[in-house]
Hints:
- The chain is an alpha/beta fold.
- The chain contains eleven helices and 19 strands.
- Pyridoxal-5'-phosphate (PLP) binds at residues 47, 50, 71, 94, 191, 194-195, 231, 233, 274-278, 371.
Amino acid sequence: MNRPTDRYRELAARYGTPLYVYDLDLVDEGHRALAGAVPEGVELYYAFKANPHPGVARALREDGERPCRAEISSPGELDSALAAGYTAAECLYTGPGKTASELEYAIGRGVRIFSVESYTDLQHVGAAALRLGAVARCLLRVNSAGAKAATTGIRMMGKPSQFGIDSETLPELMPLLTSVPGTEVVGAHFFTMSNAVDEAGLVGEFERTVVSAVQLAEEVGLPLELLDIGGGFSSPYAVPGERAEYPKLASELERILDLHLPEWRSGTPQLAVESGRYLVGGSGFLVSGVVNVKDSRGNRFVILDAGINTLGGLSGLGRLLPAAVQLDGEEPEQRASLVGPLCTPGDSLGRDVQLPELAPGDVVVVPNVGAYGVSASLLGFLSRPAPVEVLVRGGEVVSATRLELVRTEATGAAEVAAR
Ligand SMILES: Cc1ncc(COP(=O)(O)O)c(C=O)c1O
């Protein structure tokens, strides 16, 4: 591994550890990579769940030639998007469990495009829109039947799921779906997989999505004003490495779209893709201090001040973290378990990790954690403070902030409804 560069050491000395550093120049790099991987004219949506930090999100809207729009899933993500300069009209609100209060919050702030995951979800959106005298433009999220298993990545559709409307039910449901007061169904949303390393697999996935959308448009009248074909763009997570490259994807997608949706270049339908990790994963580094090094029955444990409360990696979902630390060119001198400070054996960031010789007071850097870092962590667990998040641009610190969980007096359901 490498020892952290002086830059990280300086930041650690200045702000303390654990510390996240997001490099906005690298956010721009991810943005350019995605823009280069999909044809011009296809809208790019930034999935705020990857990293809702407004400074990161702002860079994706304001910098570069193809400003991102916002894919959001909660009032908090909406607040972040608005704080980052996105207009409500640029937001697509998604999620399988949208509550009445959050829908009213979103519609009240001007959000009009919603992805709906079921007939009842659509009714909930419609009811909230009616209460506010609005009409919500809805995309039907489709869970395609028989979607072929992709070779790599995390498959999210084609099986029983809380996400999307089972495509085989659409013929029967369509008349109901298109007559919900307060809503207008304007398109479709597919998000079939995440993290597809293999370009051919990703192309195949998009082709199946487009074919399926066109078939449903022809056979059951699925409206296609806006067609969000999802994502799946891959980037390493918490281990060294580069984001996947998709050199043929743009031309392959153009071929697929020209074939199946010949009017797409003039915006019929308007096409969109979504990404979180590909845009921002590579921009983030977790700088963590070594608190202790301990040997136990022939195994070494390097105990950091960052655990799954700081880099959770969706650990609540039972996904094992394969975290490693950045080596920066140095030869590894030992293998050890990289663990956090929490009182649970689950607080493990990586087993059998290659490390340099480390002692208390040293600092290590985990790369590629710009996505699914702080906000995907067990922030409240064991009541430790959240890490500082530092934004840098051109090597200079632009901002340093820290999320804080604060216990306040609960005033009841009305408070929730107001929010
Ligand atoms: C609907 C939707 N959009 C976008 C994303 C972002 O995925 P990724 O960060 O892999 O691009 C997800 C992730 O689960 C998702 O469910």
